């Protein structure tokens, strides 16, 4: 049996729209076994996803196709706490889980960069799949040769993250449909400078710089309106001098502080205000996807 573990991912980090993502220690686990009864059995997900369109299976198949191997009869088990359509990279985790599972199945014919190329084609953008594969904070984009460039940035250990996960979904398609189609030169300059400052502040752990840097003009002003109570969450974060960004396309928001005591206070206050939501202290996952043969 093959077991694969893939971290959830939080894309954009405010000013890194579609090119920056962070792996966090909320894991999805997938097992792959030979199936003697049927071509495909999938368990651990809603029945509507227990078929050949399942992204884990699609990922597995993509590696088989890339290395010219027939797709084996498979039994796939999925165990995940990553909520769907909440901006925590649930689809990227499934794609990467399938890719890494198949790669292990065939004794690792592809390297991580090759897996990233396939994953990016499947997902459409690399900002979740890159950290899901490599771990940590990754900047990634498709270059002029249609290759995925990826750079991993250090994350200062002083930074403390809290995932604030509402009890409602926002589809990525809906969250992209509210974005304007153009930006002005001043706004682009603002965005480039602030995303450079953001990666620097994440590396040094300088929270006041991070607060200045996470001032997005590309997507957050439009998407915040889709997240009920965003302003209330922002006010709580301001009260505790912590920084807030929308994780991926939402609905999850990520609070960042540099004080463990503030982290605990943030969790308590937001849980009290929104008892139906999940408020989860979360660590950075620096390893990315892992596979083992059991
Ligand atoms: N970068 C993407 C977006 C993440 O913000 O739309 C969602 O998968």
TrEMBL record:
Give the catalytic activity: L-homoserine + ATP = O-phospho-L-homoserine + ADP + H(+)
Question: Where mainly found?
Answer: cytoplasm
Matching entries from PROSITE patterns are given as:
GHMP_KINASES_ATP
Q: Which GO terms describe its molecular function?
A: homoserine kinase activity
Arranged from A to Z, the UniProt key words for this protein are:
Amino-acid biosynthesis, ATP-binding, Cytoplasm, Kinase, Nucleotide-binding, Threonine biosynthesis, Transferase
- Fetch the InterPro entries from UniProt: GHMP_kinase_C_dom, GHMP_kinase_C_sf, GHMP_kinase_N_dom, GHMP_knse_ATP-bd_CS, Homoserine_kinase, Ribosomal_Su5_D2-typ_SF, Ribsml_uS5_D2-typ_fold_subgr
| Record domain GHMP kinase C-terminal: where | 199-275
Quick check: keyword Kinase in the entry?
A: yes
Q: Where does ATP bind?
A: 83-93
The record places domain GHMP kinase N-terminal at 54-136
* Keyword presence, Cell membrane: no
Q: Where in the cell is it found?
A: Cytoplasm
Its pathway is: Amino-acid biosynthesis; L-threonine biosynthesis; L-threonine from L-aspartate: step 4/5
SUPFAM superfamilies cross-referenced by the UniProt entry: GHMP Kinase, C-terminal domain, Ribosomal protein S5 domain 2-like
Q: What is its EC number?
A: 2.7.1.39
Q: What does this protein do?
A: Catalyzes the ATP-dependent phosphorylation of L-homoserine to L-homoserine phosphate.
Can you tell me which family this protein belongs to?
Answer: Belongs to the GHMP kinase family. Homoserine kinase subfamily.
Protein name in the entry = Homoserine kinase
Q: Which organism is it from?
A: Nicoliella lavandulae
């Amino acid at each position: 049996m093959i077991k694969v573990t893939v971290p959830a991912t939080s894309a954009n980090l405010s000013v890194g729209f579609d090119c920056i993502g962070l792996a966090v220690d909320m894991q999805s686990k997938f097992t792959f076994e030979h199936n003697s009864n049927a071509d495909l059995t999938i368990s651990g997900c809603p029945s509507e996803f227990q078929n050949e369109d399942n992204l884990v299976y699609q990922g597995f198949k993509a590696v088989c196709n890339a290395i010219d191997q027939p797709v084996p009869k498979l039994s796939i088990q999925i165990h995940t706490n990553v909520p769907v359509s909440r901006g925590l990279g649930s689809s990227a985790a499934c794609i990467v889980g399938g890719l890494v599972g198949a790669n292990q199945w065939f004794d690792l014919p592809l390297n991580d960069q090759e897996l990233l190329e396939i994953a990016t084609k499947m997902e459409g953008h690399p900002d979740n799949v890159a950290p899901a594969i490599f771990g940590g904070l990754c900047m990634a984009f498709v270059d002029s040769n249609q290759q995925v460039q990826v750079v991993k940035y250090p994350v200062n250990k002083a930074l403390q993250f809290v995932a604030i996960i509402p009890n409602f979904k926002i589809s990525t398609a809906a969250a992209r449909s509210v974005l304007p189609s153009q930006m002005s030169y001043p706004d682009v300059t603002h965005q480039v400078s602030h995303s450079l400052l953001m990666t620097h502040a994440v590396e040094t752990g300088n929270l006041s710089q991070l607060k200045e840097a996470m001032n997005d003009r590309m997507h957050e002003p439009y998407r915040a309106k889709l997240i009920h109570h965003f302003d209330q969450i922002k006010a709580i974060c301001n009260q505790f001098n912590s920084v807030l960004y929308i994780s991926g396309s939402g609905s999850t928001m990520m609070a960042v502080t540099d004080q463990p005591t503030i982290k605990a206070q943030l969790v308590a206050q937001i849980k009290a205000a929104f008892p139906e939501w999940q408020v989860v202290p979360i660590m950075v996952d620096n390893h990315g996807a892992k596979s083992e043969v059991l």
